[in-house]
Automatic annotation (TrEMBL):
Function: Catalyzes the formation of N(7)-methylguanine at position 46 (m7G46) in tRNA.
GO cellular component, one term: tRNA methyltransferase complex
Protein name in UniProt: tRNA (guanine-N(7)-)-methyltransferase
Swiss-Prot/TrEMBL keywords: Methyltransferase, S-adenosyl-L-methionine, Transferase, tRNA processing
Domain of life: Bacteria
Protein's organism: Longispora fulva
Length: 220
């Protein structure tokens, strides 16, 4: 079994310029919607299927999906302050009760979750780490994929999307090789309607890049 080197991070932390609006949103709303490792699955106040959003960015897609899918809870994971603060603001503005936010490394959180506790894992446009020497930092690789899959319920889905063709090929090979994942389609999946079109994706399309979706299910 391939082991995970927990010293390798799949992200590069940065803060950047923060607006007063984001500072206010974080200060007011983190105590309401933010979660820690030990409260991630118990803070919704109900028992419902749980979706993990790894790398929720500015939160627009997460907020839109959660609003359209009120019967499931959404656990968003983001490491960048502006994204966390903006999602908190969107949750408040839209009155969403089925979203919680974790600020930190997604793999740390996944390791803390019980097995078979997630209905779906979404990995939309993760950092492709294009340089060969950085490929070890990619999120979708065998050991990480096995860890993510172990947290899915039987029949649960691992849905990835990328605009980086070489990474898409690696994702396809890695997920196909996992013994407990089965491709829901032959090869790449058609773009699902439930995945909102984000500004990041629009920019990729404008620049002529193809968007790749991969949807795999955990076998029972």
């Amino acid at each position: 079994m391939t082991t995970i080197d927990t010293s390798i991070r799949t992200f590069y932390p940065r803060r950047g310029r923060v607006s007063p609006l984001h500072e206010d949103s974080s200060a007011r709303l983190w105590p309401v919607y933010g979660v820690a490792l030990d409260t991630a699955t118990t803070s919704f106040g109900r028992v419902a299927p749980l979706v993990m959003e790894i790398g929720s960015g500015m939160g627009d897609a997460t907020a839109a999906m959660a609003a359209a899918d009120p019967d499931r809870d959404y656990l968003a994971v983001e490491v960048h302050f502006r994204g966390v603060a903006n999602l908190l603001r969107l949750v408040e503005e839209r009155g969403l009760t089925n979203v919680r936010v974790f600020d930190g490394d997604a793999l740390d959180l996944v390791r803390a979750l019980p097995e078979a506790s997630l209905d779906a894992v979404h990995v939309y446009f993760p950092d492709p780490w294009p340089k060969v020497r950085h490929h070890k930092r990619r999120l979708i690789q065998p050991a990480n994929t096995a860890l993510l899959r172990s947290r899915l319920v039987p029949g649960g889905t691992l849905h990835c999307a990328t605009d980086w063709a070489e990474y898409a090929e690696g994702m396809l090979a890695t997920m196909t090789a996992d013994p407990e994942l089965v491709n829901a389609f032959e090869g790449y999946a058609p773009r699902p309607e439930h995945r909102p079109l984000t500004n990041f994706e629009k920019r990729g399309i404008k620049q002529g890049r193809r968007i790749f979706d991969l949807i795999y299910r955990r076998t029972g």
